[in-house]
Amino acid sequence: MFKNLILLSCIVFSVLAYNKSHSECIRKYGSGSFKSPKDNCNTCTCGPNGVIACTLKACIPDRTDDNKKRNKCIRKYGSGSFKSPKDNCNTCTCGPNGACIPDRTDDDKKRDECIRKYGSDSFINPKDNCNTCTCGPNGVVACTLKACIPDRTDDNKKRDECIRKYGSGSFKSPKDNCNTCTCGPNGVIACTLIGCVNPIGSSNPNA
User: Fold this and answer.
1) What region holds the Pacifastin domain (predicted)?
2) Where are the domains of the chain?
């Protein structure tokens, strides 16, 4: 009998607490549906146990507070650039949400200039035509450091010019009539070094 009385008391207490939670929810939000206190786009109702039950729609963010913050920032600092309130060297502007956005630095401008010149991707180093480079955060070009095979284009042109003039084989030295020469890989004439009796331009002692 005593156990039944305790059980009955617990049930009554639970029902009262259950009804109290529901009543408190209704007093706060009303007996009908109301806007969600979390997002202002979903609707909610007070459940029988006092727990709020809401719809679960995907809401577009409310920008009203952001606009207020931006307007407050503009009233305080103006619509243009201003010195950062955190330090005395950076400049800021009022962002869309009222936050202080740092202005573009000289490094940013140099990087943009580098990208306009070479592009945002990696590019061939114009100095050696074999390493690749990118525009660094401060606008300085950063390149790989591979050992490159020298470009022989100019050497080939000089060699071709020498061959056109003297031929591809050996030929008599243009400085004397006893040594022989050939056109080197870099276009420079390479000659033997025999001591000549009568170099070109010297007088004949027996004449």
Assistant:
1) 38-66, 127-155, 175-198
2) 18-60, 62-104, 106-147, 152-191
